[in-house]
Amino acid sequence: MDSIFPSKVEYKQIDTFIALCDGLIYDTTVDEIKDVIAPDFPQEKLQEYVKTFTRPSQTPGFREAIYDTINSNTTNASRSFGILCNILGSRILAPTLTNSLTPIKDMTLKERETLLASWRDSPLAAKRRLFRAICALSGTTIVRLASELHLKAIHFPQRDLRETAYEGQVIDPFRYDFMEKPSFEGAEIYLPDIDVIIIGSGAGSGVVAHTLANDGYKTLVLEKGKYFSASELQFDDHTGVKQLYQGGGAVATLNQQMLILAGSTFGGGTTVNWSACIKTPFKVRKEWYDDFGVEFAATDSYDKDQDYVFKQMGASTDGITHSLANEVIMEGGKKLGYASKEINQNSGGHPHHPCGFCHLGCKYGIKQGSVANWFRDAAANGSKFMEQVRVVKILNKNGIAYGVLCQDVATGVNFTITGPKKYVVSAGSLNTPTVLANSGFKNKHIGRNLTLHPVTTVFGDFGREVQADHFHNSIMTAVCTQVDDLDGKAHGAKIETILNAPFLQAAFLPWRGSNEFRRDLLRYNNMVAMLLITRDSTSGTVKGDPCRPDALYVDYTINKFDRNALLQALLITADMLYIEGAKRILSPQSWVPIFESNVPKDQRSIDDKDYVEWRKKVAGIPFDQYGAAYGSAHQMSSCRMSGKGPGYGAVDTNGKLFECSNVYVADASVLPTASGANPMISTMTVARHIGLGLAKDLKTKAKL
What we know:
With 704 residues, the protein is of the alpha/beta class. The protein has three domains: 1-153, no CATH class; 194-227 and 265-315 and 368-450 and 635-703, FAD/NAD(P)-binding domain (3-Layer(bba) Sandwich); 318-354 and 452-539 and 552-633, Cholesterol Oxidase, domain 2 (2-Layer Sandwich). The chain is built from 23 helices and 23 strands. The strands form six sheets. A seven-stranded antiparallel beta sheet has the order 7-15-16-17-14-20-21, covered by helices on one side. It has a five-stranded parallel beta sheet with strand order 9-3-2-13-23, sandwiched between helices. Strands 1-12-11-10 form a four-stranded mixed beta sheet. Helix 8 runs antiparallel to helix 19 (502-508). The longest helix has 24 residues, at 680-703.
C-alpha cells in the first residue's frame, strides 16, 4: 500500500498546500493596518512590516515546518494529507473540492481566500473539517515563525527582551545529573540497588519519586524528552514548542477537530503548565467512589494527600497579580453575581510571580513542578535519571515484570535495564497506554475512556488605548464556575484564561478573511483571550503508531452536550467582558456576529438593549463540530482506576496493573473520569496515594 499511497509527504505536495494557505493571510497595505498596530511602532518601519509579514509561501521556514509537522504525524495522517494534496493539485480531481476548473496555484489570492471561506461555511462537514485543519496548521505556524518586526508590531517581547523582562528574578542554579546510556546495541544495564523504575517524569512521576525517597527507596526515572536546565530555557515560541511538547505541539485528533498540547520534556506537563492548582471537585470524587469503587477518593485520606501536595508546592493565592483577562473574571464576576474566585499557584510561597511565559518552562525555579521540587529529594537520596530514553516495552513473564527495553532517542541504540523490584508507568495519558500495549497487556481499558477537557476561546477587544502586556502577569489566576454543573453531575464548563501567546491566539481566532485575520493578530495587546473549558461527558481512545514511535492516534469527538456547555460558558464570558468595557466581543465561530460598542464602561448595564439583542442571537447559534477551534491541554483516564476489578478499569485502587503484580500506573491516565478541574492536583494527589502504598508494599516484601 505504501508504494501506491506513500506514508511520507513530498515537498512538491507541500507546495500545493502552501498555495492554498496563501489565501488565509496575504499581502496588505499600510493604510489597512496602521490603525491597529502598536502605538509605539516606528512609523518608518510600517512599509517594511507589510513586506516582511506576508503570505505563508513567502515566510522563511514555513515550508520546512509544514513538512516536518505532517511527516511526524501518524502514517495514516501523512498518507491522507498526501492524497489530499494530490487531489488539490489535479486538474481533473480538484474541482470536486474547489468547484473551479482553475488549479489552486493559478488562482488569484482573492480566489483562494474565497475558496477557504466557502469551505468554512459549507453545509458539508467534510469541507468545514478541511478548513479547520488548514486554519489551525497554517495560522499557528506563520505566527510562530513571525519576524521580530511582527513581535514589535504586537508589543510582544522578543527572545532577548524576555531575559530582562522580570527584574530581580534569579535563574535557578540547580542542575540534574543524568546516567550515561549504552553506546552499543543490545547492552544490558543491571541495577539491583534501584528499587523502582519510573517511566516518564511528569506530575505523577515526581510525586512517586519524592514519596519513595522520603522512605529511603531509590528510583530510576526514564524520560523520552530532553532535559533543559533553567539557564537553557531561553526559547522563542517556535523553538520552545517544538522542543518541549509532544509532536512539536501539533498533535491532533483523527477528525482534526482538536489540537492537543502535552508536555514532552523532563518534568512533563509540570514544566510547561500554567501553575493552576485546583482541588478535585467533591462531586467528581463521589462519582469515582460510586461508579468505580475508588473508596479513598471519598474519604479524608484523599484530603490528607491533597493537602500534602498543596503544602509541598506552597500552593496559595498570595502575591497574585491579575492580568486584564483575569480581572475580567474577578471584577466582572463580582459585579454580575457570577461564582468567581482566585486560583492557587504552585509558586512555593514566592511573593511575586508575574511571568507570562510558563509554557516555555520556569527559569527561576518558582513554579514548583517535578523539576523544581519533587525530584530534588529523590536526587538527594541517590535516585538516578536518564533523559531521551524511550521505553519500548516492559519485559514481563507470568504476570511479573523483570526489566524494560529502551531506545536512546538521540542514537537509536536499543538496550535493556533489569534489577529493580517495581515498575511505575507515568508517561502521561497519551503515552502510558502505548507502553502498556507494547508490553503485551490486554486489559480492554488500556487506551480507552480518554478524556480531554475540550476548550475553546472567546476574545474581548478593549481598544487601542488598552495595552494588556500579558507577559507581565501570571497566566491563569482566576476561574468562574457559574455554569460548570449543568446536569447535577459536574458536567459543564469553567471559564478561565488562556496563555496569551501569539501562536495560540492565532489558533483560536475566528477567521473572517485575510485582512480581518491580520488586523486581529495585530490587536494582540488590546485583546484578552478567555478560556472555556468543559468537563467531558464523553470519551475517546488513544493508541500509538507502530511505524512512528511518537505519533499517536487520538480518536475523539466533542459531543453535543459538551458543545452546548461551551456555548453557555461563552454567554457568561460575554457578560463579564461587556460589563468590564470590552469594545468588541468575538465568538470562536466565524459566522457569529461580532458585538461592538463604544459605550463607556461606567455607563454599561447588562440589560442594555443592543447587548441583550446580540446575546439572544448568539444563544441561538449552537456550537458546530468544526465551527470553532477546539483544543486540549488536559489528557486523562486512558488507564483508569477501579475498585471493582478489571471489568471497570486497568489498575486497582493502589495503581497496580491488574495483569502484573509489580507494575503500577501513576499519572492522569488512572483518574477514573475527567477531573473537572485543571488535573495537576488530582494527578499528584492520586500519585501520592499510590506512592505511599508502593512504599508500604516494598517494606512488606523486604521483611519477607
